[in-house]
Amino acid sequence: MTSSNSSWSFVFVTHLKRDFLINFRSLIDLVSIISFMFLIIILFILGVGPFKEKLEIIGNAIIWVGLILSIIPSLEKTLQKDFENGWFDQLATSSIPLEIVLLSRSISYWLIVMIPFLFAAPLFIILLNIELKAVPWLLLTMTIGSLAISLIGLNGASLILGAKRGNILLPILIIPLVIPILIFGVGVNEAIKMEADPISNLLLLVAFTLIYLVISPFISALLIRIAIAR
Amino acid sequence: MLQLDSVSINRGNSVIFSNLKATLNTPGLNLIRGKNGSGKTTLLRTIAGFIPIESGKVIYNRKDITFRKNEWVKKIIYVDSHNGLSEDLTVFENLEAWLNMKGWSSSKQKVTEALKSLDMDKYSNIYISKCSEGLKKRAALVRLYFSYIFEVKFWLLDEPSNGLDQASILLFKKMITNFLQQNGTIILTTHDKNLFNEKHNVINLDLLKELRAK
Amino acid sequence: MINWLANPNRFSKLTNKLQIPLLSISTIMILLGLYYGLFDSPKDYQQGDAVRIMYVHVPSAWLASFLFLSLAISCVFYLVWKHPLADLISNSIAPIGAVFSILTLVTGSLWGKPMWGTWWVWDARLTSMLILFFFYLGYILLSNAFERKIDGSKSASVLAIVGIINLPIIKFSVDWWHTLHQPSSILRMDGPSIDKEMLLPLTLMMVGFSLFSLFLIIINVKTKLLEKKCEALILKLNLKEFS
């Protein structure tokens, strides 16, 4: 049965499917996404020393940094690939707004990183000696924060589409945008550690994520249209 | 009738077209001709709606397409040298993803039929990364099969026969003839003189620019 | 009026008249300001002579922020109204703003050494200024990262606009971060409360820096306009050779 179904949800979901197919082809793909996080964690531990006290201080930050550094480069790479092979041109001939497609891209990337992360989380938690009571909060903030990071990564990657050696610029562009997320995300975990109230940090994290959720697809769509017109 | 009414396109500081006027046959076969670098691809992409127009209008059926992008893109299929295929997916998956992106859904059967039209069904499960350039081009052109089902009226093709072998070109020629018989419009650029035998309208960018310069 | 000003020739004519006055007034103000600041104004009872860095640090900081706002506004003009001069103005502002942000960071660092014994402190303001510098750097690099300058201009303009929206958020976050981790000590780098005798040199420096920046921006834009004229002439010559 062939039919024309230009409902947004249909295109949204099938686009997710495409991203999943591309990224989750094999077990190796699943592992490689979090292998980078492992690398960061292990290197930091080796650098800092196995002292529980030291790890307690920086443990939260390390996980967040690992998350940011895992999501953004791979997101940038797939965006670049899709731009170069002309997929964005084709997307421009879809009657669905580009913003919806990009929102779908952010969400698919969020899921693509979060699902392996949630599986690997117990291991990270053990390695970094994170307390049990902090674990639910950690998972919650990581889930929310990684969505925001995915959206920010989308923006950053769209800024450099078509630039020669643009990926060198990506850190400079991403850092300012990601700072609030990092600060509030770690803030929640730190608050839990100090037995203080984490709600204010959490609310701010959620607020910013929601703001990015709305704004980011529009900014990226604008940038991609500029890129296509080249 | 598709009309280019005093279309001017700038890319930064250089003027690509200034007050370009041309009429394309709809339905019909339209060939955009010009030297390398004369702006053939730019014109094609402008008609597709990718490149913003500085001044002037592209008019279809007396309506300016710039303000009706949503309706316009439903009527077109655009294929250029980039193909728009993901290396990490198979031929079948690429076609399916493209269909879904367009907002169309289709049965496995129909997709396989489409692949057959350019003799691609035996490559259905091959990853694009393992395909030759010619196969990739065919995988992209296969999309045109769905024109009849989803009422696509325009094919915008940029060098569609690049890399195709003789057998594929014959199949592609058949597609072209069929589409024209169904009152479709084809706007293309090509260096291949043998790609079609039908009468066609020529838009010669070199001549148009010369006329203007005089 | 904006469209009237957009004509490059008119812009050049108008600014020609402004150039020399701007340069002379700003130079005088800066020299006066430096004199009053470095020699004539009082020492701070706590910080001693080191507080005099404030006369460079504070105007630089203010100007770096203000110039970024102007940059963002100029970028809006460019993206929305496609104003041709706006892009030139944006590109002229960016390096000047970047230098002022570096100046703020360096003077902040120099101020910090006698104060707290370290070359760098993660004071909320300095950290925000560092981020502002990243935005400037990002703008400059991005606008030059593409094959054709125009592509870079559009991307970079979006970055500047995102930046101006994000800066208050970042400032807020960094303040928050500060109180998170240092609830007790509050490092403040704006020196003591300003007393009357400090006000004069400070104002002189502020206005002097601002006028000087305006002068530099005008010179920059005119240079770019001349460059464009040259390019257009060369293009014409080449075309003539062809036909």
Q: What descriptors fit this protein?
A:
heterotrimer; A: 230 residues; mainly alpha; 80% helix; globular; C: 243 residues; 7 helices; 82% helix
Walkthrough of the structure:
- The complex is a heterotrimer of chains A (230), B (214) and C (243).
- Chain A is mainly alpha-helical and 230 residues long.
- Chain A is built from eight helices and one strand.
- Chain A has helices at residues 8-23, 27-48, 52-84, 87-91, 98-127, 135-159, 170-193, 199-228; one strand at residues 3-4.
- Chain B is of the alpha/beta class.
- In chain B, the strands form two sheets. Chain B has a five-stranded parallel β-sheet, with helices on both faces.
- The longest helix of chain B has 16 residues, at 166-181.
- The radius of gyration of chain B is 17 Å and the shape is globular.
- The two termini of chain B are 28 Å apart.
- Chain C has 243 residues and is mostly helical.
- Chain C has one domain.
- Chain C is built from seven helices and no strands.
- Chain C has helices at residues 2-6, 8-40, 54-81, 84-116, 124-143, 149-181, 196-242.
- In chain C, helix 2 packs antiparallel against helix 7 (196-242), helix 3 packs parallel to helix 7 and helix 4 (84-116) runs antiparallel to helix 7 (196-242).
- Chain C is globular, with a radius of gyration of 21 Å.
> What form of chain C results from the Cα inertia axes?
globular
Number of helices of chain A: 8
Strand proportion of chain A, as a percent range, falls in under 5%
> Count of DSSP helices of chain C?
7
**Greatest interface and its residue counts?**
A-B, 33 and 36 residues
Low-confidence stretches of chain A: none
Mean model confidence by pLDDT of chain C: 82
Oligomer: heterotrimer
Overall mean confidence score, pLDDT of chain A: 86
| Approximate helicity band of chain A | over 70%
Question: Which value, in Å, is the CA radius of gyration of chain A?
Answer: 19 Å
Gyration radius of chain C (Cα, Å) is: 21 Å
How many structural units, i.e. domains of chain C?
1
What letter string, H or E per element, gives the SSE order of chain A? Answer: EHHHHHHHH
Task: Describe the structure concisely for a colleague.
The complex is a heterotrimer of chains A (230), B (214) and C (243). Chain A is mainly alpha-helical and 230 residues long. Chain A is built from eight helices and one strand.
